[in-house]
Amino acid sequence: MEQRGLARLRLPGLLALLAALAARTPRVSASGDLNLWPLPVSLKTTPRLFYLSPGNFFFGHSPTSKAGPSCAVLQEAFRRYYDYIFGFYKWHHGHNKIPSEMELQKLEVSVIMDPECDSFPSITSDESYTLLVKGPVATLTANRVWGVLRGLETFSQLIYQDSYGTFTANESNIVDSPRFPHRGILIDTSRHFLPVKTILKTLDAMAFNKFNVLHWHIVDDQSFPYQSISFPELSNKGSYSLSHVYTPNDVRTVIEYARLRGIRVLPEFDSPGHTESWGKGQKDLLTPCYHAREPSGTFGPINPILNSTYSFLSKLFKEISTVFPDEFIHLGGDEVNFNCWESNPAVLNFMMNKGFGKNFKKLQSFYMQMVLDMISTMKKRSIVWQEVYDDEGKLLPGTVVQVWKMGDFYKELENITAAGFPVIISAPWYLDVINYGQDWRQYYSVKPLNFAGTPEQKQLVIGGEACIWGEYVDATNLTPRLWPRASAVGERLWSPQEVTDLDDAYRRLTRHRCRMVRRGIAAQPLFTGYCEHEGRM
Ligand SMILES: *[C@@H]1O[C@H](CO)[C@@H](O)[C@H](O)[C@H]1NC(C)=O
Ligand SMILES: *[C@@H]1O[C@H](CO)[C@@H](O)[C@H](O)[C@H]1NC(C)=O
Ligand SMILES: *[C@@H]1O[C@H](CO)[C@@H](O)[C@H](O)[C@H]1NC(C)=O
């Protein structure tokens, strides 16, 4: 009896912890080697372990921090990360009694500069942070809340629960900041509608991988789900159905959810091609195609020769520029099919008057120029697909060019940066293209700066995006197709250039994938194996 009493008193405490550790030593201990993803810039760890008890741990603000409990970004993040760390496990032992010198009781957060609690993240947001894990109080220091968010993710990844239910973290010292400021995921809500819930799930997973841009390719040929305030007919007629629409409230929900995770929402309204669905709700917007000198009844790209086109676009983009707070708007400009323009006598006549001859690229440039000028008068910056640069559009300085054609994309990077334009790389990261096997390795092995150019040119590579186009993707398969394959891109864009070891990446990514599964992300397996803790899938 007395023995039992003793056991009850002590065993859930220190002895149990030590026994648990001893029992585990023959296996490769997951607490021994860390499972951080993406790897930080600098990481020092010691064998000294600290123990966390769910009932006796909290996040708090340092007394000298410029941010306090009124900062929603941080309060919400504290709640989330408490759950990620403790919430999804079964607590086998309830509240362990941990000797105080071995316990980690608090993570104290300190923001040094104006925290930007009520701002939206931007391309220049400071995401750097320093994390000191020790007992009884660990510290997380950052210039802005954006760095705190990244540091909280790292902190949560340092905490490991063994099969006995004990939470531990190695003593560590981490200094970290991203390699590239633009780290995006492109989703396509036109080929298939993605419910808001699915988009929010994607934002969660993005935060787990330190992505900071949701590139929302919101409309295209197939459907126009964006509900415009100025032109409600666009989605009334152009969406798949009236229940497959993003209302102004839906859009606000996505933007705020993203903001709380330090993620920008970059809207893309691709034109003049890829606009079939626009034509359903906006009369005379698309070019009528001709066959044998008669209108054929079909329509091509946006009609670039009508004044009404530009007054429509000006009003639409004015709205977009206020609905989406980001400094950038993506204008598309890719894959314009010239056949319809070529068939239309009024278009040919317009080109003759303009002196374009039969050069349809000049007509395309004329159109893009009009739209680019429009955007700059709205105090926004433009992003365009590479064709707009390739086809000799006179781009305003600062226009960002997104490189998507696989061909010789390093040469393309060299050319565009030599001309002085910032670039985003997505050519090697089209995740909608699927292969048998571990294609994450090829995404991981991309060297974004591996082109001939000056240091100034390399500076113009602002980042990259993993793209998951929607032809074969909807809410049923978006998440497993994206994760953990996009995680490979996430580490490439965050971690230092030297982080290239594929074996180490495989080991960490396998566990990172299990961590995502535990947190409710249906990430697919990398290869054979199992996850140690059952998730809530
Ligand atoms: C963490 O601590 C354990 C237990 O002392 C030790 O075996 C392991 O090597 C440490 N891991 C790191 C990465 O320092
Ligand atoms: C279109 O606008 C231009 C420039 O404002 C003007 O010169 C032209 O007459 C207008 N065309 C039509 C058909 O209204
Ligand atoms: C880069 O520019 C050169 C010289 O203008 C041109 O010949 C080449 O085709 C361009 N390459 C790419 C990939 O755009």
TrEMBL record:
<keyword id="KW-0326">Glycosidase</keyword>
<keyword id="KW-0378">Hydrolase</keyword>
<comment type="similarity">
    <text>Belongs to the glycosyl hydrolase 20 family.</text>
</comment>
<dbReference type="Pfam" id="PF00728">
    <property type="entry name" value="Glyco_hydro_20"/>
</dbReference>
<dbReference type="InterPro" id="IPR025705">
    <property type="entry name" value="Beta_hexosaminidase_sua/sub"/>
</dbReference>
<keyword id="KW-0458">Lysosome</keyword>
<feature type="disulfide bond">
    <location>
        <begin position="289"/>
        <end position="340"/>
    </location>
</feature>
<feature type="active site" description="Proton donor">
    <location>
        <position position="335"/>
    </location>
</feature>
<dbReference type="GO" id="GO:0016020">
    <property type="term" value="C:membrane"/>
</dbReference>
<keyword id="KW-0443">Lipid metabolism</keyword>
<dbReference type="GO" id="GO:0006491">
    <property type="term" value="P:N-glycan processing"/>
</dbReference>
<keyword id="KW-0325">Glycoprotein</keyword>
<dbReference type="InterPro" id="IPR029019">
    <property type="entry name" value="HEX_eukaryotic_N"/>
</dbReference>
<dbReference type="Pfam" id="PF14845">
    <property type="entry name" value="Glycohydro_20b2"/>
</dbReference>
<dbReference type="GO" id="GO:0030203">
    <property type="term" value="P:glycosaminoglycan metabolic process"/>
</dbReference>
<dbReference type="GO" id="GO:0060473">
    <property type="term" value="C:cortical granule"/>
</dbReference>
<feature type="domain" description="Glycoside hydrolase family 20 catalytic">
    <location>
        <begin position="180"/>
        <end position="496"/>
    </location>
</feature>
<keyword id="KW-1015">Disulfide bond</keyword>
<feature type="disulfide bond">
    <location>
        <begin position="71"/>
        <end position="117"/>
    </location>
</feature>
<comment type="function">
    <text>Hydrolyzes the non-reducing end N-acetyl-D-hexosamine and/or sulfated N-acetyl-D-hexosamine of glycoconjugates, such as the oligosaccharide moieties from proteins and neutral glycolipids, or from certain mucopolysaccharides. The isozyme B does not hydrolyze each of these substrates, however hydrolyzes efficiently neutral oligosaccharide. Only the isozyme A is responsible for the degradation of GM2 gangliosides in the presence of GM2A. During fertilization is responsible, at least in part, for the zona block to polyspermy.</text>
</comment>
<protein>
    <recommendedName>
        <fullName>Beta-hexosaminidase</fullName>
        <ecNumber>3.2.1.52</ecNumber>
    </recommendedName>
</protein>
<dbReference type="GO" id="GO:0005764">
    <property type="term" value="C:lysosome"/>
</dbReference>
<dbReference type="GO" id="GO:0004563">
    <property type="term" value="F:beta-N-acetylhexosaminidase activity"/>
</dbReference>
<dbReference type="InterPro" id="IPR017853">
    <property type="entry name" value="GH"/>
</dbReference>
<feature type="domain" description="Beta-hexosaminidase eukaryotic type N-terminal">
    <location>
        <begin position="36"/>
        <end position="158"/>
    </location>
</feature>
<dbReference type="InterPro" id="IPR029018">
    <property type="entry name" value="Hex-like_dom2"/>
</dbReference>
<dbReference type="InterPro" id="IPR015883">
    <property type="entry name" value="Glyco_hydro_20_cat"/>
</dbReference>
<dbReference type="GO" id="GO:0006689">
    <property type="term" value="P:ganglioside catabolic process"/>
</dbReference>
<comment type="subunit">
    <text>There are 3 forms of beta-hexosaminidase: hexosaminidase A is a heterodimer composed of one subunit alpha and one subunit beta (chain A and B); hexosaminidase B is a homodimer of two beta subunits (two chains A and B); hexosaminidase S is a homodimer of two alpha subunits. The composition of the dimer (isozyme A versus isozyme S) has a significant effect on the substrate specificity of the alpha subunit active site.</text>
</comment>
<keyword id="KW-0732">Signal</keyword>
<dbReference type="GO" id="GO:0005975">
    <property type="term" value="P:carbohydrate metabolic process"/>
</dbReference>
<feature type="signal peptide">
    <location>
        <begin position="1"/>
        <end position="30"/>
    </location>
</feature>
<feature type="disulfide bond">
    <location>
        <begin position="514"/>
        <end position="531"/>
    </location>
</feature>
<keyword id="KW-0968">Cytoplasmic vesicle</keyword>
